[in-house]
Design the sequence.
């Protein structure tokens, strides 16, 4: 009936009880000693009785031992058991490629042979620079040819039928468009007219387009870089676009329009060139006097004669408002054609020809880049075939090799795109302003994306060759 002495009795003061945690450390984690003991004994009985956990019974699939040599297994799915701590994955799902390992392989290769990616990048840099220059030429020519219509905030453009959607030939008078503002769905309407003219500044004469417009209407330019735009009724004042501002004309300068009318510059608007010529924005009276002196046979009056620019109400469909405008102007004995602003931009003379010509050249350059990228990818795979076979023999998944190839092509794309951007920007800064080569950030971004897609398509050809690498090739090469 006496209790056996305990190891902790000597250190425990007389009259106190033992600490349960001294015998049962699991009590510190919230489990009582008795409960812990029951769980431990029940777990031993289950492991002894369950055939799925007994290595000597049928049904055991995978087993392993922990560091102490005791059997330790964890369920890996269904009736399958794997060593505890072993990585498991759902059935039917391929392992994700180890991007960290692929990045390290590419980095080690770049350190060992740094000239290999540089040689490939130089080849693609030449083609990327050619493609970027062609895209920049296309973008600059299109912007300088149609910038006038891009500078206004309108939904519809009104031409008279005889004009055939040509801005310089349209003769829609301002008084006839006043009633258009009362058509259902129309928010505001204005008139914009363009006539060829000249600008003389400090003894230098420049060709330009004189633009007459109604202020506070959709015909007014949306972006003003400096100063302000003229309003209707102000005498002898104009605004110039950024192209003339780069030529040396500033706010406050006095210029001569058409060789006879001296005016003052009160503002600078964003570049709004039309048919490759800079623009001068003038109120109706300045436009009419200059136009009458330059083209007396046309009979210009104080009222603007040109194209109508219509802004529809929010929520209205411009395609549904256009027929109502045609019907309204027909009552004024004026046969008109109403088109969307995008369609009017495409109808500018030379715009479609420029787009087709340079677009074909850009497409050809991208096709060449795809072919060269495919050749580089195939060359890379064939050159490193023995290394890939060895990696496969060591257990590297196909996704790891594919990620390595894509990373190599990504490095080449980054080097080629950066070099092509620097070369094109330097070329654009070196050529005269008359050369249509102006680099815009959106053009660079679009070109980089197209180059990435082209190189990716070429790299896909190399991936098909890479997936055919067999680890048995390593044994055949050594034999």
Sequence:
């Amino acid at each position: 009936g006496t209790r056996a002495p305990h190891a902790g009795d000597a250190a425990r003061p007389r009259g106190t009880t033992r600490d349960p945690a001294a015998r049962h450390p699991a009590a510190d984690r919230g489990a009582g000693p008795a409960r812990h003991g029951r769980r431990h004994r029940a777990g031993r009985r289950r492991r002894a009785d369950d055939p799925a956990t007994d290595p000597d019974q049928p049904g055991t699939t995978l087993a392993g031992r922990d560091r102490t040599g005791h059997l330790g297994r964890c369920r890996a799915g269904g009736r399958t058991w794997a060593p505890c701590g072993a990585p498991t994955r759902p059935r039917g799902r391929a392992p994700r490629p180890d991007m960290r390992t692929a990045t390290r392989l590419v980095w080690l290769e770049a350190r060992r042979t740094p000239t290999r990616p540089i040689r490939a990048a130089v080849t693609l840099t030449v083609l990327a620079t050619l493609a970027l220059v062609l895209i920049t030429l296309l973008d600059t020519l299109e912007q300088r040819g149609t910038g006038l219509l891009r500078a206004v905030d309108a939904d519809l453009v009104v031409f008279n039928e005889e004009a055939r959607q040509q801005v310089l030939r349209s003769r829609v008078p301002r008084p006839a468009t006043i009633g258009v503002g009362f058509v259902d769905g129309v928010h505001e309407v204005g008139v914009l007219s363009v006539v060829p003219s000249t600008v003389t500044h400090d003894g230098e004469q420049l060709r330009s387009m004189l633009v007459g417009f109604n202020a506070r209407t959709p015909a007014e330019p949306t972006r003003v870089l400096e100063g302000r735009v003229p309003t209707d009724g102000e005498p002898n004042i104009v605004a110039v676009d950024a192209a003339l501002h780069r030529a040396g004309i500033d706010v406050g300068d006095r210029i001569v329009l058409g060789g006879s009318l001296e005016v003052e510059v009160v503002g600078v608007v964003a570049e709004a060139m039309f048919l490759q010529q800079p623009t001068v924005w003038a109120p109706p009276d300045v436009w009419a006097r200059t136009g009458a002196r330059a083209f007396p046979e046309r009979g210009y009056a104080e009222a603007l004669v040109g194209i109508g620019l219509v802004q529809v109400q929010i929520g209205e469909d411009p395609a549904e408002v256009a027929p109502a405008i045609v019907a309204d102007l027909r009552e004024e004995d004026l046969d008109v054609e109403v088109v969307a602003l995008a369609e009017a931009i495409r109808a500018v003379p030379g715009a479609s020809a420029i787009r087709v010509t340079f677009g074909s050249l850009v497409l050809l350059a991208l096709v060449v880049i795809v072919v060269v990228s495919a050749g580089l990818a195939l060359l890379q795979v064939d050159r490193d075939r023995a290394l890939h076979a060895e990696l496969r023999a060591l257990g590297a998944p196909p996704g790891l090799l594919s990620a390595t190839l894509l990373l190599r092509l990504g490095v080449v794309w980054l080097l080629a795109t950066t070099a092509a951007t620097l070369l094109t920007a330097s070329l654009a800064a070196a050529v005269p302003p008359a050369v249509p080569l102006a680099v815009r950030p959106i053009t660079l971004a679009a070109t980089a994306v197209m180059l990435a897609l082209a190189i990716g398509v070429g790299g896909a050809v190399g991936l098909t060759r890479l997936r055919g690498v067999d680890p048995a090739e390593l044994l055949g090469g050594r034999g």
Notes: The chain is about 45% helix and 15% strand. The chain has a mean pLDDT of 76. The longest helix spans residues 115-150.
